[in-house]
Amino acid sequence: MSEDLRSLEEKVKDLRPYLDDRKVKKIALELFRIYKRQIPKDALEKTADGSYTLWSETFKEPYHSVSAGAVRECRLKFLYPSGLLTKAVRSDSLSILDVGFGLGYNVAVAITLLKAVNSSLRLKIVSCELRKPTNVPILKGPYGVWHRWLMEVFPEGEKEGVSFLCLEGDARKNLKSLSFKADAVFLDPFSPYVNPELWTLEFLSILKNLIKEEGYLTTYSKALPFRKALLDLGFKIGETSPVGRRGGGTVASLKGPVIPLSQKERRRLSSSPYAVPMRDPSLRGTSLEILIRYFEEVHR
Fold first, then answer.
1. What residues does each domain of the chain span?
2. What pTM does this model have?
3. How far apart are CA 242 and CA 259, in angstroms?
């Protein structure tokens, strides 16, 4: 989305006509800083671990961290912190909710490594994705077998104890009526300020109802509005190890053990004006509407 500052000010005025000019300018400037970071690049890009990712034409971001490595990110930011590998040793079946199927890497890596731990393990995987990307590069090595299968059977398939279903379209609508309890939620949309629809208090409340109390939500993000929303919903939150960047991601659980955040991070969540949840009361808001509502709260 390419916007100049003046046009953003007009959009803020249209949606919030009661705001004074000073606040309109502050909110428009916040939006401008977000949109100017969205730089389109070549569709295919090699990441740090040798695997490839794609850039989204819609969100102007890569599907995976280029500096961390796409496959490495799947392992270290999503699967390992979820505790699924430990549970797989002693379980007959596990369930995963994958929010943001994207290129299918998270699911392919999870199936491959969980089956390596327990070949008889049954897996039920429900994913959601706005639309299936095209020209997806198939993973190399051991992950390629399951990745190729996922792309061939998309949006639904069953094989060797693995049940896979991807719900296409708006996840806010699709997950609201889902009857499912996950051992782990992989929360992997595009970043909170670019794809805020899937990071709001209301959407996270839906996820809360879909995760087991001892289950874990894992994600790459440490954004303040996201973490504050988790706290407000009763989650315990911790930080995962940094992978490809200075800060780590987030692991959260309702009742499972979590290593607490550092004192510095707790202080930021209690004192920063940006530590307020993004809101989408109707679960139908556009990204612009959600961001304007959020920055209006930030600059109260």
1. 1-37, 68-298
2. 0.96
3. 15
